[in-house]
Amino acid sequence: MKSLLIFDLDGTLLNTIADMAVSTNYALNLCGFATHETDNYKFYIGNGINKLFERVLPEGEKTEDNILKVRQIFLDHYGTNNTNLTSPYSGISDLLKELQNRGFKLAVASNKYHAATQKLIQHYFPEIEFIAVFGHREGIPTKPNPRIVNDILSIAKVENNEVLYIGDSGVDMQTAQNAGVDACGVTWGFRPRAEMETFSPKYMVESASEILTIALQ
């Protein structure tokens, strides 16, 4: 049986894609750059916001100055509009409550910037007592570097074989692999199943309730 479950945020706990797209397109438009369809953002996000802006800027415009300019406008807009269209995936709230009631330790490890990660978790899951909620912190490498998972393990004081890492992308599966913990891919998120399977996760699930079954094994 597992004792600690670590969840990715975007595409795993919350469907954040619409709000991310609106705020990024808002910033791009103000800077005079072309915008993108919402579904395209499923492949733009996942590696931190600087990488997001690098991906959405036109060829020849992916400069540090442009990235920083778009980033600042995005942060101002997203900071006050990041719950307009976002919602938990089906069954997630009930899953977290059940896991907490059964005594599992819960944590969040995201490449979303730290302030937004903490705000969204508090807004959508205020009744859940996560032992750690980490987004991307300045000076700390982003996933798939295992640092974020290792920091959570230090807080939880558990062995690697007691941990289940849950995410929706190849980056998440690789993060679990790099940290030496079991990975569980979810099929309801932003990235295709085949991308996750490239990294041979131990588990793949199609519904939130399956995660409880795995945790209890």
SSE inventory with pairings:
Blueprint: E1 4-7, E2 14-15, H1 17-30, H2 49-56, H3 64-81, E3 87-88, H4 92-101, E4 105-113, H5 114-124, E5 132-136, H6 147-156, E6 163-167, H7 170-179, E7 182-186, H8 193-197, E8 203-205, H9 209-216
Parallel strand pairs: 1-4, 1-6, 4-5, 6-7, 7-8
Antiparallel strand pairs: 2-3
State the major sheet: 6 strands, parallel
The total count of helices amounts to 9
Our count of domains comes out at: 2
Poorly predicted regions are: none
* Adjacency order of strands in the biggest sheet: 5-4-1-6-7-8
Quickly give the CATH architecture of the largest domain.
3-Layer(aba) Sandwich
The total of beta strands comes to 8
Span between N and C termini?
5 Å
Instruction: Name the CATH homologous superfamily of the largest domain.
Output: HAD superfamily/HAD-like
Radius of gyration: 17 Å
Give helix % range.
40-55%
CATH class of the largest domain: Alpha Beta
Shape, please? globular
CATH topology of the largest domain: the name is Rossmann fold
What structural class do helix, strand and pairing data support? alpha/beta
Mean of all residue-level pLDDT scores: 97
Strand content: 15-25%
- SSE pattern: EEHHHEHEHEHEHEHEH
What does it look like?
This protein is an alpha/beta fold and 217 residues long. The chain folds into two domains: 4-15 and 87-216, 3-Layer(aba) Sandwich (Rossmann fold), CATH 3.40.50; 17-81, DNA polymerase, domain 1 (Orthogonal Bundle), CATH 1.10.150.240. It contains nine helices and eight strands. The chain has helices spanning 17-30, 49-56, 64-81, 92-101, 114-124, 147-156, 170-179, 193-197, 209-216, and strands at residues 4-7, 14-15, 87-88, 105-113, 132-136, 163-167, 182-186, 203-205. The strands form two sheets. Strands 5-4-1-6-7-8 form a six-stranded parallel β-sheet, with helices on both faces. The chain has a two-stranded antiparallel sheet with strand order 2-3.
